[in-house]
Q: What sequence folds into this?
């Protein structure tokens, strides 16, 4: 139960506050709002406070503010309040929520026949001045971080299983401490298993100071650091340590959740968290889970098949008590939480944790929420170490929903296909498009697909220029030579006399340009000649091409890489192919450029657009 209240006498605009508070009570009861309509109450308080502060700046007394009066223009006050909220919460949905709540209260009063000014009524029916900001979709974890999280979680699972196996062995040797004594760890574990351990009992049975406890008991306590915030470990820490020797704690269960979410692309974190032991059915081929998606209002059963175990070489080391697929992880999770179900009266949650309970001073069970202070996903990440002993370098935000997106991306990379295939059976296509497709990996895959398709088109549409060596130039007008080069006799003669020189190369037919279809003269020469099927290059033109190559390299330093690639990248690749066919002639051509002081003639736009 939560109690909310507003005292109109706390505000100078007490009539306005009372009128809005009455509407708050009505709308909360009418809609059956479970939390008492906290947003509506907050909107009333904040707007009344703002009215008290803002109206005196207009030379008005806030006492006159009311919904059924015109002494103060409340429409102007609402707009000013929206501006103030946007400045106070620039990147939050909170201003939008508060203004929508206020307008809903005013509109409800008007709809019920209450007196509301016509201008104010029109404002209540209009949308807010600012839209709710759209949050940026969470990105998936990069593959290296996914592997790091997976390995850290596996190490945590192994460590948890090892610790519980050690505690189970000690428990088997323990006896009732009322007969065998309270200063033995096995006996304390026996008492914890029987529900006899509380901080009050330990204070009575053990020395008052932990330094006088037996060494084997003191070794169970966590290390104490004098940081001014933590307390010296005592009986509470001992109760918690005994519980961790027998059952999994909440921080231990993070590792299972990480591995399961990485292996179950069709399961949301809340569906996994809400599972109970009765929702899990093991079959010959895997495990069947009955999952509830509360937001979608549906229940479905999913079968997760067992994965074939990888071959293990002779002598290979494997530390673990089972498989790492979904059925194997669920078996291991049920095993580490089984003792808690047997020892304590509790609901059969899958993620069942044991911890110290303040109300009883002993051990108790709870469903791991993963939201308590210092027990969130981010705290688990910061407590992990990689193989070198360094903290895990995981990008923020440390949001568990990114694990699901990572699993979705892995599925997309493995399956490919259309959005229908990638969305699977647990999403609409638009949901996948809006929440999963914007991820970095999806963008990279889409970019690669576009590049492949463009390259496929370029390879079929664009032909290479024809390179004619010096020995073939005198024989160019011979029919056999011209035909072998794909030229007619008239074209060969015109090229030989220089009539079709386009500045960088010769051209078979300037009126048959692949860059236009209206039969007019080519309009992109010489900028696109290196990418044209009509281009014919003589070795005597190599100095020009070398100067063009130098110009392209200067543009590489002046332009951003994406822009340079779009403008000059394909031409640079075509030039490199030409130079590779006549590499032995390039030194002489380079020397000719220097000796003759040649200058490259390019259209003015290509020189000035990038060199201002």
A:
């Amino acid at each position: 139960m939560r109690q909310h209240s507003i005292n109109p006498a706390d505000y100078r605009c007490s009539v306005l506050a009372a009128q809005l508070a009455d509407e708050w009570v009505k709308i909360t009861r009418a809609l059956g709002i479970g939390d008492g309509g906290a947003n509506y109450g907050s909107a009333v308080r904040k707007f009344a406070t703002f009215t008290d502060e803002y109206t005196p700046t207009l030379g008005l007394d806030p006492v006159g503010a009311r919904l059924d009066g015109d002494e103060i223009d409340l429409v102007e006050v609402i707009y000013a309040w929206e501006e103030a909220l946007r400045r106070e919460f620039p990147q939050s949905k909170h201003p939008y929520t508060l203004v929508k709540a206020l307008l809903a209260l005013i509109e409800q009063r008007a709809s019920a026949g209450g007196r509301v000014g016509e201008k104010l009524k029109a404002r209540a029916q209009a949308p807010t001045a600012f839209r709710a900001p759209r949050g940026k979709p969470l990105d998936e974890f990069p593959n290296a971080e996914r592997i790091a999280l997976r390995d850290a979680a596996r190490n945590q699972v192994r460590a948890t299983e090892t610790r519980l196996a050690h505690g189970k062995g000690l428990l088997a040797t323990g006896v009732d401490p009322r007969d065998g004594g309270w200063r033995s760890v096995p006996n304390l574990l026996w008492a914890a298993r029987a529900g006899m351990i509380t901080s009050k009992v330990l204070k009575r049975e053990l020395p008052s100071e932990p330094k006088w406890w037996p060494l084997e008991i003191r070794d169970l306590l966590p290390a104490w650091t004098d940081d001014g915030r933590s307390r010296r470990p005592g009986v509470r820490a001992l109760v918690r340590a005994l519980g961790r020797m027998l059952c999994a704690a909440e921080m231990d269960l993070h590792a299972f959740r990480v591995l399961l979410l990485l292996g179950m692309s069709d399961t949301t974190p809340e569906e996994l968290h809400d599972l109970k032991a009765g929702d899990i059915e093991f079959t010959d081929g895997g495990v069947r889970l009955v999952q509830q998606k509360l937001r979608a209002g549906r229940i479905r059963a999913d079968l997760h098949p067992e994965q074939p175990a990888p071959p293990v070489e002779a002598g290979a080391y494997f530390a673990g008590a089972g498989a790492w697929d979904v059925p194997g992880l669920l078996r291991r999770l049920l095993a580490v939480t089984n003792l808690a179900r047997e020892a304590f009266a509790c609901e059969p949650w899958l993620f069942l944790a044991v911890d110290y309970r303040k109300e009883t001073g002993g051990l108790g069970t709870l469903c791991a929420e993963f939201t308590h202070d210092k027990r969130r996903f981010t705290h688990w990440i910061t407590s992990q170490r990689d193989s070198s002993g360094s903290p895990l370098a995981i990008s923020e935000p440390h949001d568990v929903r990114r694990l699901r997106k990572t699993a979705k991306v892995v599925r997309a990379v493995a399956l490919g296909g259309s959005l229908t295939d990638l969305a699977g059976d647990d999403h609409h296509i638009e949901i996948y498009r809006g929440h999963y497709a914007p991820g970095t990996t999806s963008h990279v895959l889409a970019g690669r697909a576009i590049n492949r398709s463009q390259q496929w088109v370029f390879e079929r549409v664009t032909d290479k220029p024809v390179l004619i060596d010096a020995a073939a130039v005198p024989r160019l007008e011979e029919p056999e030579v011209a035909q072998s080069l794909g030229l007619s006799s008239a074209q060969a003669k015109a090229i030989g006399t220089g009539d079709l020189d386009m500045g960088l190369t010769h051209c078979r037919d300037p009126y048959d340009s692949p860059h236009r279809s209206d039969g007019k003269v080519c309009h992109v020469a010489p900028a696109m000649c290196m990418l044209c099927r009509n281009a014919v290059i003589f070795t005597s033109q190599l100095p020009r091409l070398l100067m063009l190559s130098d110009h392209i390299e200067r543009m590489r330093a002046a332009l951003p890489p994406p822009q340079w690639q779009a403008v000059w990248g394909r031409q640079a690749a075509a030039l490199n192919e030409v130079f590779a066919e006549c590499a032995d002639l390039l030194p002489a051509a380079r020397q000719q450029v220097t000796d003759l002081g040649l200058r490259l003639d390019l259209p003015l736009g290509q020189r000035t657009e990038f060199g201002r």
Remarks:
- The longest strand covers residues 286-293.
- The radius of gyration is 38 Å.
